[in-house]
Structure formats: structure tokens, C-alpha cells
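hey can u run this one w/ calcium ion bound, need the C-alpha cells asap thx
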Amino acid sequence: MPGAVSAGLIGAEARTRRPGSLAGGVLAGVAMILVAMLLSSVVFSIVRADNSIRDAATRRAQSAIDLLSTLHVQSMLNRATLSDDDGATRAFDATMSAFSRDEGHVQVWMAMSAETMYWQARRGAATIEPPRDALDKAGLARRRELIDTRGDTVRIVRPVILGQGVAADARCVACHGAGPGALRPGQVIGVYSAQANMAAERAHWRRMFLDEVTWLVCVALAALLALSLWLRRALLRPLRRVERIALRMAHGNIDRPVESLATSHEFGRIGTALEQFRQALVQKRALSEYNAFLATHDSLTGLPNRGAFAERLKHLLVEAGTARAGPAMAPVGLSGTADEPPAALCVMIDLVRFKAINDRHGREAGDALLCTVARALRQALQPGEHVARLHGDEFAACRLVSQSEDIDDFLSRLARALATPLHDGDLVLGTGGSIGYALSPEDGSCVDELMGNADLAMRRAKADPHVAYTRYDPQSDEPSRTRVALLDDLALAVARGQIVVHYQAQHDTMTGTVVGYEALARWIHPTRGLISPAVFIPLAEETGLIGPIGAFVLREACQLAAREPQPVRVAVNVSAVQLCDPQFDRLVHQILVDTGLSPARLELELTETALITHRDRALHAMRRLKALGVQIAVDDFGVGYSSLEAINLFPIDKIKIDRSFVTTYDVEPKGRMLLKAIITIGESLQVPILAEGVETQAQLAFLRSVGCTQVQGFLLDHPRLREDLPLDECGDTAGVADVA
Ligand code: C2E
Ligand code: CA
Ligand code: CA
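ok here u go:
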């Protein structure tokens, strides 16, 4: 469940990290910037507005003071008398009182210093204005203009100094500086005090400002809303789609192509990358599915392979077994009635003539024929039936059957399918099948047993082309079973030291001396006892085991001969399979080097059939062996089909006449003639002739009479283990001398 696992991981990651929303973050950031901008602009506006309102109020107060001081001075200068009912003075006083009354806007008043008040009092002035507050007093004391802002008011206190500014005129000095209590120039005679009120301006500004801020906040909120909508559309939605697609793929749903994300250049690229990723996943899945398919199927025909077939057969056996063990248990065996419990039918098929077709028309045609047959077999199947290719041209089929008609129907459908010809241009290649079958539980209760027995039945069917299909029969299939069992055991025979070598002496016919030994392999089977090479050598040739077995015999024989003080030869049988191995001459060379045996003392026996069947390769191999200095003998001479050709073609050192000529020479006049003819050929070609299978004195006498050079047979010696060989007998003439 890789999808679930990755989904779990994604979930776990999401749980541990808990990231905030991207759009939320962006919006919060933008909102914070806007709020900061708004706040700083508010603060800046407030400070600026307050300054300008204060400045305006200050200017207003100053202007009022300027106006009043001008009017004051002017009235003082203009007036004719010192009385206060002077016209200019009245105008000034009127203005003054008007200013003083104007409480909402600006108020201006004058205050006199203590000296001036004293002076005024002495002069009998009607209005004497003392300082109104501490600020007026401070103005009088400090002699400089003071500006003070408190709450919504700005106060300006401007001192009037005699002899300076507005009080600089000579008449001012003359007026204030004469008489008792006179003031001197440089003395503060009073202050002009003005108080401007800013409350109205401030209220007005606040209203304006509130309107402005409201407007700005609305604009900012609208901008945030627009931004959030844009973020949602341009960022969030595509991101959610990316998330959905990734989760979909994480859950294993990779068949749906990635839909377009091209809302922006970047998302377009992410979409393309996701699609490429999906395609890579699809390819990977296809590859793993193909690998899984290959693990259970034959790559050429696409049919299930041996493993998959065994698995299906196993299921059928379980099904059949369960049905039999059920409440309605019926007797075993198919009687043809519809009530029978089901049995598992296992069928083994081997194509006929397939090897010939392959050899003649080539591997490609062979493969095409296998595919044709496989297709036909598959098409012939009905529900519940299975077919498989085991290897090469071997197929298998299985199903459950309840009555014998089921078997006939199934097998005849298979047989028809097997006969389906391959049409390749003008070429029509047809085959057929040898079919053997076995039924559970009588012919086997497990997969191996059932398949093995069906295979044995198939081998019997193969041997008899007239039989359509054969059921396994314990009696008839016993030889095949033994053979199969032997094949299994033979694989381990060399490693377990079960192959031993016996040696049979070869004698000179005239002198009776031992001229050599023939090495003959034996298999000491742990349960079956001694097994003849006539039985196991063909099996070894079939399975390729002849390689290690032949090498073992060759090494043993060479070791024995190398230790032997007399220069007798050792003859070793070489099968056609060994001869065709391109490495064979190297092996011989290596063994000669390892054992230290002179090549001239080693004689390799090759049957003429092997030589002629693999003519070119045999000739090539023989030349290389001859180059090593090894001797070559033709074994079983006379029973092959081209004896004379073999002598003519190959560089032969000895001819071994087959045993059949010797045993029948006295009853077959033709055999006697042939024996003589072969010996004459040997004499004329100066090739020594050895007669095999000499069992009687009469045979020996005859062979001697016709000039046969060497003899070998039970009369003179039986094959024996090396330990039992009378090695000191070499050169002994006992057996033959007796006869002589
Ligand atoms: P072969 O090469 O013709 O060996 C001679 C066979 O005749 C041997 O049988 C031997 O025991 C038997 N024999 C010898 N003298 C007499 C006799 O007087 N009368 C009768 N009836 N038989 C006699 P064996 O040992 O059973 O070998 C059978 C065949 O197995 C051999 O025939 C040879 O073709 C093959 N063979 C044996 N050992 C090897 C081996 O190491 N490699 C190969 N490739 N083939 C081997
Ligand atoms: Ca031989
Ligand atoms: Ca022979």
C-alpha cells in the first residue's frame, strides 16, 4: 500500500509542522504595512496640523498685538491732551475692548508695570490695568516676548520698553519720563498680551481628519479585499489543485493526466513538471508490472510459466480436495455420472516434430510456431481451464473434471489447438502434440506428483504416435520413472564419489602380452547398486553431465597409467558430446600435464557414429588432439553406417571391431567375411585391429588365424578396479599363451 503509506507520511508532516496559510500570511503582512502607513500618516498629519493651527493662532495673536500696539502708539501720539476722552484714545479703547470681548477668537489686553501703574495713578489716569496673570508678570520681568501654548490657547506677551520699538518716540519718552515717579528709557512700561483660541480650528480639523481617515481605511480595506480575492484566484486555488494532484498521485491514482495549471507562468511549469512526474510513475509501474508478469509468464508466448501453472494446479487440488471432503462424500474415480466429485486433471503436452522444424526452418520460425500454438491453446480454453508453457516445446494444461466426458472434451480441444498450422507466406508449418494426463487423487495428490506422472504419460504417448493421448499408468510408466529418478541422482553422483572406474586389459593376440587397459565407468548407486554405463552414459549425454563424468574418468585413467612402470596404453571412451566441446583438447592437455602421462600412452576411443554425425567438428577436434600426440581409436567399428568413410577421413591409430562380429562370426558366414575384410583393410592401411568381446577360445583362435592384432574380452580379463589389477602381470602372456 505505497499510496496509503505516503499519504500517512504527508498527514504526519502536516500534523507536526502545521504551516500557516500562505494567503493569510500575505494578507496579514499587507494589512500590517497598510496599518503602519496609516498610523504614521495619522501621526504625521496630527503633528503637522497641530503645528500649523498653533502657528496660525500665534500669527493671529501677533497680528492683533501689532494692530493694537500701532493703534495705541498712534492714539498716544495723536492725542492733543492727556485726558482719556481724546478721539484717538477712544478709538483705541473701543478696539481694545472689542478685542477683549472676543472670547471665541482672540483676546488682547494691556497690562502695566508697577512703575507705570504708580505713575498713572499719580497722574490720575482713569484706567489702570494690572497684570492679569503670571505670564503677564513674567513678560514684565523678563523684558522679552513670551509665547506660551496651553490647551487650546496660545498666549503672547510682548513687553513695551520705553525708548525702544513702539515706545521709542521722543514723545513717549517725554510723557512717561517726566514728573514725579518718572520712568527712564529702558524700563518696561507694560506688556501687550494676546490670547488666541484654537479650539474651533482644532475641532474643524478633527472633523476633516476623521473624514479623511475613514476614507483611507475604506480604501485600504477595499485594497485588502481585492488583494485577498486576487491571492485566492492566482495563488491559493492553483496551490490547492497542486495539493489535490499530489495527494491523488500519493494514493496511487496516476492514470488521470494532470489537468492544466496554467494560471501563471510558474504554475504552468509546475503543472508540466507534475505531468512529467506522473508519466515517470506510470512508466515505473508498467515496468514493475511487466517484471511481475515475467516472473509468472513466459516471455515468448505470454502464457503462464511453470511456477504459475503449479500454483493454479495447487488451487485446483485444494478445490477438488475440499469438494471431496464435503458432506456429500462420493467414491473416488470418474464413472461418467454427473454426481462425481471433481478431480484435478493435469495435462502435459510435447509438440511433435518441433525440433526438426526448428532445425530446418530456423529459430524464428520455431518461435512463431510456438506463438501460434500458444494462441490457439488459449483460444480453446473455457472458464476454469488453464494452460501454460513449461519450457521449449512443452506445454501443460489443467482444470477440474467431474465426468470422463469432461476429459475427452478438454483433451480433444487441446489436440485440435495443437494442430493449428503456422502460415508464413507460402510456408505452412504444422505440428501436433503428444498428450499425457494424470488425475487427482488416484494418479497423484500433490502438484509435483501429478505433474511428474502426467509427464511420464506424455513420454509414453510420444513413443507411440498412433495414440491421441495417454493417461498415467504406474506399470507402463515405471521405466520412465526410473529414468527420471536416475537423472536426478546422476547429477550428484560425481560429487558424492559414486562413479568409479574399472579397467579391462587389452592383449596382443600373438604374444599374449597386455598392451593396454580400457577404462570403463561404473556407477555405484546407493540403493540400486552397480549401474552399467550402457544405462547412465546416454543419460549423462542427454543432460550434459557427461562433461564432469568424462573428465573424472580421463583423469583417473591417466593417473593410473602414469604410475604404471610398464609403458602400456590406457584407452578412454569419449562421447560425441565431449568431442564437440571446443574446450575438450585443452582439458586433455591439462590432465596430461597434471598427471605427467606421455600423450602417446593415452588412446581416446571414439565411435564411428559420433565421428560421422559431427563430421566437421569431430575432424577439427581430432586434429587438435593428434597435435597433442594422443592416439585415436575407432570404437564399435562396423555397426555404424559409414565405416569406410570414417577410416578414410580421420587420422586413426586403431580400429576396434564391434563385439557383434566376434560373437556371431561362427554362425554368420557373412560376419566372418566382414571380419576378414576389416582385418585386411587394417593390414593394408597399417592400422592395428582390436577385436572386442572375445569370450571363447574358438573366437580367439579364429582371430589369431585371420591376423587380428589385439584382443579384448571376458576370456582374457574382466573389467576390474585399479586395486584389483595385477599390474605386475603387464607383459604377462598367461591367458593368451595358454591358448597359443
Ligand atoms: P565399449 O566401449 O564397447 O566397452 C566395452 C564394453 O564391452 C564394456 O561394457 C565391457 O565390459 C564389455 N565387454 C568387454 N568384454 C566383453 C565380453 O567378452 N563379452 C561381453 N558381453 N561384454 C564385454 P560396459 O563397461 O558395460 O560399457 C558399455 C559401454 O559404455 C562402452 O562400450 C562404452 O561405449 C560406454 N562407456 C563405458 N565407460 C565409458 C566412459 O567412461 N565414457 C564414455 N563416453 N563411455 C563409456
Ligand atoms: Ca570402448
Ligand atoms: Ca566397443
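The first helix runs from residue 2 to 17. anyway lmk if its weird
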